[in-house]
Amino acid sequence: MIRLEKRKEPSKFWGIANPFLAVALTMLAGGIMFAALGKDPVVAIRLIFFDPIFSETFGSYSRPQLLIKSAPLILIAVGLAIGFKAGIWNIGAEGQYIMGALFGAGVALAFFPQPGWYIFPLMVIAGAFGGFLWAMIPAILKTRFNTNEILVSLLLVYVAERILAAMALGLMRNPDIPGFPGSRDLRRYEAAHNAELFANTGIHWGVVAALVAVILAYVMMTRHMLGFHVQLAGQAPRAARFGGVSPARLVVICLGISGALAGLAGMFEVSGPGGQVRIEFASGYGFTAIIVAFLGRLNPVGIVLAGLLLGLTYIGGELSQMMLQIPGAAIQVFQGMLLFFLLALDFQTNYRIRLTQGERA
Amino acid sequence: MILGSINPAVLLAALMVAATPILLAAIGELVVEKAGVLNLGVEGMMIMGACIGFIVAVNTGSPFIGFIGAALGGMALALLFALLTQALMTNQVASGLALTLFGLGLTALLGQRYVGITPPRTPKLDLGPLSDIPFLGRALFTHDIVVYLSIVLVAAVWWFLKYSRAGMILRAVGENHDAAHALGYHVKRVRVLAIMFGGACAGLGGAYLSLIRVPQWTEGMTVGAGWIALALVVFASWRPWRALAGAYLFGGVVVLQLNLQAAGVRIPVEYLSMSPYLITILVLVIISSGKGRSLDAPGSLNRPFHASS
Q1: Integer Cα distance of B56 and B68 in angstroms
Q2: Which of A180, A267, B144, B210 has the fewest other C-beta atoms within 10 Å?
Q3: What ipTM is given for this predicted complex?
Q4: Angle at CA A151, nearest 5°, toward B104 and A157?
Q5: Domain boundaries, chain A
Q6: Which helix (H) or strand (E) covers residue A266, if one does?
Q7: Which region among A345-349, B58-62, B186-190, B239-243 has the lowest average model confidence (pLDDT)?
Q8: Within a 13 Å sphere around the CA of A165, how many CA atoms are in the beta-carbon half?
Q9: CA distance A230 to B13
Q10: Are B101 and A287 in contact (CB < 8 Å)?
Q11: Max CA-CA distance within chain B?
């Protein structure tokens, strides 16, 4: 007779081992999927997970891409993880990411074509503010009217996508090229360009911001009272209330931080790798970051590793699309499977399998 | 005036069609939540239904078999959720999200070769003289069978939850799973069955989009319908008939918005098309602020159940 027994404390070992196990299982299941698509599974998996870094031919192009793709994921996931720890589910980071990009680009386009050292810092502030503002909608509705933050933040993604389209076609459209959607290319406007800081490394200001955010989040979660409150609220909400933690304040703080970070990510993307406000600007970073947060165990250091891995799958996905004609959607399936396996494996973090003899007690 | 050019009977008919996919998904999720499970994967199960239903219908030439395939597709994904949350005790919120992300990816992959194809037509149900009644005939009796099926389903769920023994067990499991367990009911079995029912309903709703409403397959074509269905369950305070009213209200907003677009109102299309989401949020706010804290939500909603002995 097999039965599950709840562990008194979550297993530390499985907590760390499971993400690695989940990645291995995803590769296995992914290989089966590729075989079903009629592609050589070994070649495909190698192309996605190893070649972007180690290949002689693609390496020089894709190595810098790794940081470019991972930075927004890490930046967003670090913020989300704080909320998830407290049991506050912001799943609309994609919308906050879009609004950050629009606010940042808005500042740049307003100053165009003036030069000025102060323009880029202003864009950074505007980007963070845009994401913050968008996250404040679910936060205030939650604290004032007890409206479910999951549904509101998610529904606002669709609203943000439509605002993005309206901006790309209307207010922010490049007046110099009539008839085409999309704003001016910010990469050609020096004062607003989020350029590479070191040539061919992929390091731009967003990468720096991600690093700073990781460090600050780590310090906050381990050393600061706020971090303690967040953990307490997530693990024992009643105890937290008795301990004087205001749930409303925590909702505003958690959503505010994650919104601002997502906004920053969007702003760094639109002024750098993305380049311009386009209808198809949003690429799902806000959703993938949810997977990054979980895979990284909601821990800032873990999130860096998880962000790098999922950034890798983005580049590997592009490579496999190019080389093996594997559809781009396969990578999305990959990411979904990864989360499934991780969640499934986590049962052994919290439960122990016991083999008992004879009848149940 | 622009609104004058809109025929109310046509509007009413269009409203019912617009409401049907989210009504189907919502009534399924309502049962799931009544059993105490929060499945946030409705969007994923809907898109699965839309995709599988489309593929099956195109290959068999029968929309009817397509709908069956869609229900099975949605149910398959729901079973995955049941396995995770009921057997492996995973977090329901995270598992639901995973279901949605996975479903969106998988269908983009599966449906790739079906973009741009027209599916076989679903015939309108011939209701004979009923459809000749002035106004009402055009508005109510010119639909395909799925529209009526969705209403029948609402009635059936209402009856099931209110009067049947099985329905009462389901509600007991959702209100207090420890008490239900102590009374000897199989909490997990009830929940798995409810989750499967929810998946089948969401699948049907998705297929209604791809086979009748649009009708075409495009990647990510549900654009939030599943999330709106989830909001609808809250709006309905977990009561079937209110879900129907809410779905039709929502359908009305969608149709009105589309009509304004067609009539060439001087508001950009992008702003008009965000109105369904904004209205949903607004309605959520009104509902959740109105009645204290509890909202009549099932007592054990989103709480994992693990029998200690």
Answers
A1: 9
A2: A180
A3: 0.87
A4: 60
A5: 38-326
A6: helix A247-271
A7: A345-349
A8: 14
A9: 50
A10: yes
A11: 69
Q: Identify the DSSP state of B144.
A: B
d(CA B273, CA B277): 8
The tokens 């590729």 sit on which residue?
A: A34
- Phi and psi for A113 in degrees, rounded to 5? -100, 25
**Residues forming beta bridges with residue A353, ordered by sequence position:** A4
CA B227 from centre of chain: 9
- Domain range annotation of chain B: 7-226
pLDDT tens digits along A218-271: 999 888 888 888 888 888 888 888 888 888 999 999 999 999 999 999 999 999
Chain A residues touching residue B95 (CB < 8 angstroms) = 343
Look over chain B and give the mean of its residue pLDDT values, rounded to a whole number: 88
Give the containing element (helix H, strand E) for A333: helix A329-345
Residue A350 sits at the chain B interface (C-beta within 8 Å): yes
Residues of A in contact with B223 (CB under 8 A): 158
Residues with Cβ within 8 Å of A194's Cβ and at least 6 positions away in sequence, in order, are A120, A186, A204, A205, A206, A268, A271, A272
Q: How far is it, in rounded angstroms, from Cα B191 to Cα B179?
A: 15
Contacting A residues, span 91-150, partner chain B, CB-CB under 8 Å: 91, 141, 144-148, 150
Pick the residue of B274, B278, B283 with the most A CBs within 10 A to test the interface with A by mutation: B274
**Which residues of B are less than 8 Å from A154 in CB distance?**
224, 227
Residue owning tokens 């629009």: A102
CATH class of the domain whose range is A38-326: mainly alpha
Task: Say which of B97, B105, B288 has its CB closest to residue A329.
Answer: B105
A44 or B73, higher pLDDT: B73
CA A355 vs CA A93, A347, B140: distances in Å: 43, 16, 60
Q: H or E element: which one contains A74?
A: helix A56-86
Q: Give whole-number Cα distances, B163 to A66, B157, B159, B190, B298, in Å.
A: 59, 10, 6, 17, 18
pLDDT band at A360 (very low <50, low <70, confident <90, very high): very low
* Phi and psi based region of residue B295 (left: phi greater than 0; alpha: psi -120 to 50; beta: remaining): left
